[in-house]
Write a sequence for this structure.
C-alpha cells in the first residue's frame, strides 16, 4: 500500500499531473455515458412511434 | 474481384452498417479499457522518473496520444468527406460526423494537458506559439464543423457543406505537425521522428504507444456508438429501423 502511494506521489508536480490525468479521465468516462444515453433516447423515440402506429387511438 | 466489390458496398448502406457498428463497439470498448489500463499502470508504476522533469513529464503519456488522435481523427474525417463527395455515400458523411465530437475532445485534451505541462516547465499556462496556436485552430475547425452541420436543416446540404469545410481545413494538420520544425517555437520538437529515430527511453516510449493504441480503440468505439445514433436519428421513418427497434426499446 505504501509502495502504491509512493508511486502515485507526484511531489511538486501533483497539481499538474493530476490536473491532466483527472480531466482526461473525466472526459473519457463522461463521453461514453453520454453516447449510451443518446442511443437509448433515439431507440425509445422509435419504439414510441411504433407503438403509436400499431394501436392508433 | 466482383464479389469483393459487392461486399464492400454492402456496408456503405446505413441499414447494413448499423448492426456491424453494434458488434464492433463492445470489442473496441474492451480493447480500449485493457490498453488504457495497462498504459496507466505503466505510466505510474513502471516508467522511471525523468532526470530533468521529475514526475512532471508523466503528462506526456496522455498529452502526446491525445494530440496524435486529434490530428489523426481529423484526417480520417477528411478522408470520409472526400469519399462521400466523390461517391455520394450518405454513410461516409455520417462517419465524419460521428468522429467529430471525439476529435474535438482530443484536441481539447491536447491543449489542456499541454497547458498543465507548460506551467511547471515553461512557467506559463499559455503562449501564442506556432504549435499551440495551430492546435487551437484545429479545435475551432472541429467546433466550426459541428456547428455548421447542425445549423443547416437540409441534411444533404449540411453533409456537403461540412465535408468541404473539413477538406479545406486539412491544410492545418501538416502545419501543426511541422510547426516545431518550420518556426522557432517554445514547444519541444517531435518526440518520435518520421525517420524512426526517437529521443526517448524505451519504457517511456512503450507506455506512450500503448496509451496511443488505447485512445485509438476508444475513438473507434465512440464513433461506432455515435454513428448508430446518427443512423437511427436520420432513418427513424425507414421500415428497417422501425422493425429493428420494435415496440420495446
Amino acid at each position: 500500500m505504501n509502495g502504491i502511494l509512493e508511486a502515485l506521489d507526484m511531489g511538486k508536480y501533483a497539481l499538474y499531473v493530476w490536473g491532466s490525468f483527472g480531466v482526461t479521465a473525466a472526459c473519457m468516462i463522461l463521453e461514453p455515458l453520454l453516447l449510451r444515453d443518446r442511443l437509448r433516447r433515439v431507440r425509445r423515440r422509435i419504439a414510441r412511434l411504433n407503438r403509436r402506429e400499431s394501436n392508433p387511438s | 474481384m466482383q464479389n469483393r466489390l459487392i461486399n464492400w458496398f454492402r456496408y456503405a448502406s446505413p441499414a447494413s452498417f448499423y448492426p456491424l457498428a453494434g458488434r464492433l463497439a463492445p470489442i473496441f470498448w474492451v480493447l480500449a479499457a485493457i490498453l488504457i489500463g495497462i498504459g496507466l499502470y505503466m505510466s505510474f508504476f513502471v516508467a522511471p522518473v525523468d532526470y530533468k522533469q521529475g514526475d512532471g513529464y508523466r503528462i506526456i503519456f496522455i498529452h502526446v496520444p491525445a494530440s496524435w488522435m486529434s490530428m489523426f481523427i481529423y484526417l480520417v474525417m477528411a478522408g470520409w468527406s472526400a469519399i462521400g463527395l466523390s461517391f455520394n455515400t450518405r454513410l461516409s458523411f455520417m462517419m465524419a460526423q460521428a468522429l467529430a465530437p471525439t476529435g474535438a475532445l482530443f484536441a481539447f485534451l491536447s491543449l489542456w494537458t499541454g497547458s498543465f505541462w507548460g506551467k511547471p516547465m515553461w512557467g506559463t499556462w499559455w503562449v501564442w506559439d506556432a504549435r499551440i496556436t495551430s492546435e487551437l485552430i484545429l479545435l475551432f475547425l472541429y467546433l466550426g464543423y459541428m456547428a455548421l452541420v447542425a445549423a443547416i436543416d437540409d441534411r444533404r446540404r449540411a453533409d456537403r457543406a461540412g465535408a468541404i469545410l473539413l477538406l479545406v481545413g486539412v491544410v492545418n494538420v501538416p502545419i501543426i505537425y511541422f510547426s516545431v520544425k518550420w518556426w522557432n517555437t517554445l514547444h519541444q520538437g517531435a518526440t518520435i521522428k518520421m525517420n524512426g529515430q526517437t529521443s526517448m527511453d524505451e519504457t517511456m516510449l512503450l507506455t506512450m504507444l500503448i496509451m496511443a493504441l488505447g485512445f485509438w480503440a476508444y475513438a473507434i468505439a465512440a464513433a461506432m456508438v455515435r454513428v448508430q445514433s446518427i443512423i437511427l436519428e436520420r432513418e427513424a421513418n425507414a421500415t428497417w429501423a422501425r422493425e429493428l427497434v420494435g415496440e420495446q426499446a
Observations:
- Chain B touches chain A at residues 29, 36, 40, 44-45, 54-56, 58-59, 62-63, 66, 101-102, 105, 108-109, 112-113, 116-117, 119-120, 218, 221-222, 225-226, 228-229, 232-233, 236, 241-242, 245-249 (CB under 8 Å).
- The mean pLDDT of chain B is 91.
- Chain B has one domain: 24-46+60-231.
- The two ends of chain B are 40 Å apart (CA to CA).
